[in-house]
């Protein structure tokens, strides 16, 4: 069994990767992949906040596919059920509340950020982000409810802020920033989405149209990005039981925009 990681080892690893005071970090983490951590996710968050310092900000996805009947999460949940059972699942879905709705599929660190004292959360009912630090409110403001991960989402604000992406025990398949490249390529396909919301406290289904999100080729995209990365665009170090990477978000999005334009036809994959 691996020896639990402590705060000093976290600090050393983050320094090796190149995390610096003042950084804005978009963090994706699989603490299970990294291995045991003394103090759990709260200790990881504390180490991240120490690494970025008082002027830095930690951001995480706090997505909620659990309140949508157009999400892969829902389709997996109802697979094999009859119509009555599917409707029972739909009826039990809670409406999104940015102050209270958990994000269980995003992992323990994301929940630690979301529930931390002083944390902010954007208002999108499906693809919200949570953040803590002096830049949180500005980064999360104006997340339009019919724009998952495009120009009116925190991803675009992170791009403007020259943020970096920290992949702690996760691979490129979970690199959310690549989705901004989907919006920026020519003629991206659109689809309908539906989820449960509660404006003025009244539960209701809301349907909207947005870019069709598809992460099925992000692993290949990430491998190509890493292979052709410029100096400082990707830094890698082993940590615990996993590999951890620090990416420049602008470089990742710019590469993704070109790669997706080349490898996907309008309307879908090549």
What is the overall silhouette?
Answer: globular
- pLDDT averaged residue by residue: 92
What portion of residues is helical?
25-40%
The Rg value, from CA coordinates, equals 19 Å
Spatial arrangement of strands, main beta sheet = 3-4-2-1-5-9-8
Let me know the largest β-sheet: 7 strands, mixed
Number of helices: 11
Total beta-strand segments: 11
Number of domains: 1
Secondary-structure element pattern, one letter each: HEHHEHHHEEHHEHEEHEEHEE
List the helices and strands and how they pair.
Layout: H1 7-17, E1 24-29, H2 31-34, H3 40-52, E2 57-61, H4 72-78, H5 83-92, H6 108-114, E3 120-121, E4 129-132, H7 136-140, H8 154-160, E5 164-168, H9 178-184, E6 190-197, E7 204-211, H10 218-227, E8 234-239, E9 242-248, H11 249-263, E10 264-265, E11 268-269
Parallel strand pairs: 1-2, 1-5
Antiparallel strand pairs: 2-4, 3-4, 5-9, 6-7, 8-9, 10-11
Briefly characterize the structure.
With 270 residues, the protein is of the alpha+beta class. Helix content is 36%, strand content 20%. Helix 3 (40-52) packs across helix 6 (108-114).
Could you characterize what this model shows?
With 270 residues, the protein is an alpha+beta fold. The chain has one domain. Helix content is 36%, strand content 20%. It has eleven helices and eleven strands. It has helices at 7-17, 31-34, 40-52, 72-78, 83-92, 108-114, 136-140, 154-160, 178-184, 218-227, 249-263, and strands spanning 24-29, 57-61, 120-121, 129-132, 164-168, 190-197, 204-211, 234-239, 242-248, 264-265, 268-269. It has a seven-stranded mixed beta sheet. Strands 6-7 form a two-stranded antiparallel ribbon. A two-stranded antiparallel sheet has the order 10-11. Strand 6 and strand 7 form a beta hairpin. Helix 1 (7-17) packs across helix 3 (40-52), helix 3 (40-52) crosses helix 6 (108-114) and helix 9 packs across helix 11 (249-263). It starts with 6 loop residues before the first helix and ends with a strand. The mean pLDDT is 92.
